[in-house]
Amino acid sequence: MDVTAENPSVSENPSGLREAERQIAELAEHQCRVGEGTPEWEDLETQIRKLRKAAFADLTPWDKVWLARHPSRPKAEDYIERLFPDLIELKGDRCFADDPALIGGVCEFDGRPVTVLAQAKGRSTAENIRRSFGMMHPEGYRKAMRLARQAEKFRRPVITLIDTSGAYPGKGAEERGQAQAIAECLKLFSGLKTPVIGIVLSEGGSGGALALSVCDHLAMLEHAVYSVLSPEGFASILWRDESRAEEAAGVMELTAQDLKKKGVIDSIIREPLGAHNDFNYVCSQIDEMLREQLAGLSRKKPSQLSADRLRRIRSWGIDSRRQRTEQE
Amino acid sequence: MNIFTRRRKELEAFKRAVLNRKREHQTAQIPDNLFEACPSCGKSYLQDKLQENLYVCPDCGFHIRIGARERISQLCDSFRETDKTFCVPDKDFPGYSEKLDKARDLTGLRDACVCGVAKIGEQRFMLCVMDSRFMMGSMGQTVGEKIVRTVEGAIRRHLPLVIFTTSGGARMQEGILSLIQMARTSAALEKLSEEQLPYISILTDPTTGGVSASFAMLADIILAEPGALIGFAGRRVIASTVREELPEDFQRAEFLLEKGFVDRIVDRRDLKDELGVLLSLHERRPLWT
Ligand SMILES: [Zn+2]
Q1: What is the value of ipTM here, to two decimals?
Q2: 3-state DSSP assignment of residue A325
Q3: Which residues contact B150 (CB under 8 A, 6 or more apart)?
Q4: Of A37, A157, B76, B93, which is most buried by a Cβ count within 10 Å?
């Protein structure tokens, strides 16, 4: 993981999607020259729409990895501005520091107070460096736990937005107990006596993403990816060859569709042309999903919520047909 | 693969394991294998002598990695294995079933951990021991489920829980389903906490990745063996990210003790006694009688 190079694989993606995006960029440039409203402009617009539709109709897993990391894909802050515009950010873990890779705070949503915990990749390179590319340190997970306990205390639901390639791998992170922080986070959320709803926005990688995924309803954007490790890391561990990342993505079953089939996620947020082209539509679906889930979950007693979640995690990812014990 | 070919494959694997064990036994007579060298100081010792010393180097005190069965025989006065044959059916990831076969031949285990009801003296407890010889002790669905069941066994029987961890992390071949075992085991431990039952983990070399970031770090009392490598991210990954000098003892048990993430480092030769005392201190008894 090289934090100095932004989205290193973007330029290496050889897929049809990338070629289509290149052509679209060219057409759009041409469009600017001819001026809006002219017949030629309309014609170009139709071409762009066609190209985009064709490209998105048949995305490979590697396309989705590329898309999930795309600089123009909306980040947590974009969603917060739209869905939780009045968010009052609350900072710090009360132990060591504030972790800018996690935005936490409170606001009103659908007429009730909620706590929002959002893994934040930056929208520019400078911001990305400040936010460690959305890779949280132990203090980030401890901030998440502090705000989750606070939400439980004041009986407000927790909404988590997940977008990280993984927890930060560094000297300080290890010294301050990255493993312990993630472990405690997993344990705390599993028993939290308030509703928790998670949304995988773009990239969900390893334990760093899982720590915010223990919830009552886990939704995922149609073209987001979620996996045990990045395809690069996967290829390097299994085949000792990082360059086989595309091949790895092909066998890792990391798409929303794969995970829905396995019962790892509960619902898929549609984004027919990618969230960056369909931001309004995506936000309206998230809004609707949140209202619906919150309405249902708010009817449960706090003790019922944690009991149900513990049961849910107990059977997470277990295919009932395969649950039987194999006897020798 | 139908049930008959699978059965046959399993039978063959079992036979191979038996043969291997026999072979080990035979080769033990040959002087070459009669000795084992300490990986740290290089001194050679008679196998018997090393075993007698619990595979701790008599000279430099280095703790040599040991398998789950050896650990149990060192530690327990009695042990009854649970979920002995439990196994989530093999996944079809390319090359995975061959790797599993190999690991099963090597260790005689079905997967990377052994669970059961154990006794030290009169102290009964639920025990789970991981084995790093089995695909680096990686946690897939079988290990995850066995740990969940062991935790639930502790709750059902009102017994303390002891887990010996050793693992390189998640079992890559099982993908996302290996990752979520971190959440499943942690949630099981949340239930154990609610029941106020004690949990002691002993971190042995190496305990990293998904296992360190779940049940290894969630115990009421965390012990570690001297020199054990314990951490979340791999040293190589960290070195390539931060480009700064990492201390000599980085991610070693002693480093974690200093940083406040383990309670005690315990020499393997003292472990049985210390564990017995800790368990007896956690026996349920009326307050102030
Ligand atoms: Zn030695």
Answers
A1: 0.91
A2: coil
A3: B82, B83, B115, B126, B127, B128, B161, B163
A4: A157
For A150, residues 6+ apart whose C-beta sits below 8 A from its C-beta are A115
Please choose, from the candidates B118, B79, B80, B87, the residue with its C-alpha nearest in 3D space to the C-alpha of residue B103.
Answer: B87
Read off the pTM: 0.90
Distance from C-alpha of A27 to C-alpha of A21, rounded to nearest angstrom: 10
- Give the Cβ contact number of residue A117 at 10 Å: 25
- Cα distance between residue A46 and residue A42, in whole Å: 6
- Residue-wise pLDDT for A177-192, tens only, equals 999 999 999 999 999 9
Could you tell me which of B169, B262, B190 has the C-alpha nearest to residue A207? B169
Each domain of chain A, given as residue ranges in start order, spans 3-58, 66-325
* Residue A305, C-beta contacts closer than 8 angstroms, at least 6 positions apart: A192, A193, A194, A195, A216, A297
What distance in angstroms lies between residue B59's CA and the mean position of ligand 1's atoms? 5
Q: Which CATH superfamily is domain B66-281 in?
A: 2-enoyl-CoA Hydratase; Chain A, domain 1 (3.90.226.10)
Cα of B7 vs centre of ligand 1, distance in Å, is: 44
Give the distance from residue B182's alpha carbon to the nearest chain A alpha carbon, in angstroms.
Answer: 8
Chain centroid to Cα A4, Å, comes to: 21
Alpha-carbon gap, residue B101 to B108, rounded angstroms: 10
CA of B114: how far to CAs of A323, B91, B142, in Å? 19, 21, 11
Architecture of domain A66-325: Alpha-Beta Complex (3.90)
- CB proximity under 8 Å: A 155-184 to B: 167-171, 173-180, 182-184
Distance from CA of B87 to the nearest CA of A (A): 6
For residue B233 the two structure tokens come to: 């991210």
Interval B169-215: pLDDT, tens: 999 999 999 999 999 999 999 999 999 999 999 999 999 999 999 99
